[in-house]
Amino acid sequence: MERALEVRERVYPDELHPERLGGLNNLGYVLMLQGDAARARPLFERCVRDSEKVYGENHLNVAFGLQSLAEADRREGRLGEARAFSERALAIFEHNGQSRSPRVVESLLTLAQIDEAEGRLPAAEASLREGIEIVTGKLGYDSAEQLEVTDALARLLRRNGRNAEADALDARAVAIRRKSGQTASMPGGTSTPMSRIEKDEKR
User: Fold this and answer.
1) Is 58 helix (H, G, I), strand (E, B) or coil?
2) In whole angstroms, what is the distance from residue 61 CA to residue 83 CA?
3) Minimal CA–CA distance to 39: which of 27, 51, 48?
4) Which of 5, 18, 73, 98 lies most in the core, judged by the most C-beta atoms within 10 Å?
5) Is residue 190 pLDDT above 90, yes or no?
6) Are 43 and 36 in contact (CB under 8 A)?
7) 152 contacts 109 by C-beta, under 8 angstroms
8) Distance of CA 8 to the CA centre of its chain
9) Crossing angle of the two packed helices 147-159 and 105-117, in degrees rounded to 10
10) In whole angstroms, what is the distance from residue 102 CA to residue 125 CA?
11) Position 181 pLDDT exceeds 70
12) Residue spans in the chain of domains classed CATH 1.25.40
């Protein structure tokens, strides 16, 4: 992937070319998937900075970069910075009339994880429920786009002893996965895809 970025930089010598910005973001995303948030962060930071130059501070592309930057900081334990980036991303979505778009859910999930880490459990739950409401309202009750947030909410509820509510969410997630053709099993099995939170815990 780094080789691909080098090729893009040679093909597009203008450092503010959209193809180069996309390459930065893609490489950062791959590094995040590999668990290397420390190396991903400067790429996201550069992407945000250059996107602001190209598109302006309130462009949606800036919000997407801020979402990635926030998640990198959260994974590195910089919760204050992560919160600020997530909140700024949400403000940009609102500025562009996208406050109820499924695109905001990534920021809501990051904020929920930050709130949970800081012991603000009601706030974490509220963000996750808002994310589910946004996705189901726009994409339908059975949309697979809600699964990561649903998994995170079930996990949060289970941690707080609300097992019946968590079980209901888990069963719903399994049904959605089956309907959408994804591998499905009840939590604790090996075939159900892990949520972002669960992946973090296993690192």
Assistant:
1) coil
2) 18
3) 27
4) 73
5) no
6) no
7) yes
8) 26
9) 20
10) 17
11) yes
12) 1-76
